[in-house]
Amino acid sequence: MVSKSSDTLGDFANALIHSRQHVSPKRLIAPGPTLSQKLEILNAAGAAPDHGKITPWHFYEVSPEGRNQLGALFAADLMERDVNATPTQIEEAKQKAFRGPLLLLATAKLNGDLGHIPAQEKLISAGCAIQNILLMANALGFGSGLSSGKALYSQKLRALFSLAEQENPLCFITIGTISIHKPNKARPDASSYSSVL
Ligand SMILES: Cc1cc2nc3c(=O)[nH]c(=O)nc-3n(C[C@H](O)[C@H](O)[C@H](O)COP(=O)(O)O)c2cc1C
């Protein structure tokens, strides 16, 4: 718990949490986070709840060369899945690798020495780490979006990122400046998803 609880902190947390919303990677443009902001964003993940302190997540930043490789992978994966894919669709698939100034792949590491910690606890930790990243990006004035897609689960992607056994790709995270702001979306009320035993 933070040492000083105050209305101000509560107001800040409310504003931070409720102003975050998914931004399509297409609407995330330069400038992206500086090096120190990127570290601040990645370090936020380290504050996720982590039973056994096993850090069951990993974030891979996709470099410019990595984007070329990932774009080729997206195109190849689409062509493999759909022999009728048009050149435009293949190019669109490829371009997904080039959206947004900062592109991360998030994974959950479900193996490890501490086998008594169930996979679902590790997944929860990884999800919390992702949310911390999204919230820190928001706090620094950036928008963010998560994306998945069939290629995420392909063997080719596992090979490209040299994923370990039982390391599961979860989603891509794109972070950047929001080009077009959209109104905040309505959220479900707590009464719809909480109750008392
Ligand atoms: C694991 C994961 C994968 C996602 N993949 C996609 C995706 O491929 N395409 C997309 O438009 N949104 C994707 N999203 C974002 C959700 O669509 C978005 O979070 C949802 O619409 C709710 O919006 P909000 O984040 O603003 O609350 C993904 C979200 C999660 C948690």
Short description:
It contains 6 helices and 5 strands.
Question: Which helices and strands occur, and which strands form pairs?
Answer:
Elements: H1 7-19, E1 28-29, H2 35-45, E2 57-61, H3 64-81, H4 87-95, E3 102-109, H5 119-139, E4 143-147, H6 155-160, E5 167-178
Antiparallel strand pairs: 1-5, 2-3, 3-5, 4-5
Helix pairs in contact: 2-5, 3-4
Give the DSSP E fraction (strand runs of 2 or more residues).
15-25%
What are the distinct ligands in this entry?
Answer: flavin mononucleotide
Shape: globular
Calculate the mean pLDDT score and round it: 96
In N-to-C order, the SSE pattern is HEHEHHEHEHE
What is the architecture at the second tier of CATH? 3-Layer(aba) Sandwich
Helical percent range? 25-40%
Uncertain segments: none
Number of strands: 5
Task: State the CATH topology.
Answer: NADH Oxidase
Textual characterization of the structure:
With 197 residues, the protein is of the alpha+beta class. It has a single domain, classed as NADH Oxidase (3-Layer(aba) Sandwich). It has six helices and five strands. It has helices at 7-19, 35-45, 64-81, 87-95, 119-139, 155-160, and strands at residues 28-29, 57-61, 102-109, 143-147, 167-178. The longest helix has 21 residues, at 119-139. The chain is globular and about 55 Å long. The relative contact order is 0.21. The model has no long low-confidence stretch (mean pLDDT 96). The protein binds flavin mononucleotide (FMN). Flavin mononucleotide is lined by residues 21-22, 146-149, 170-171, 185.
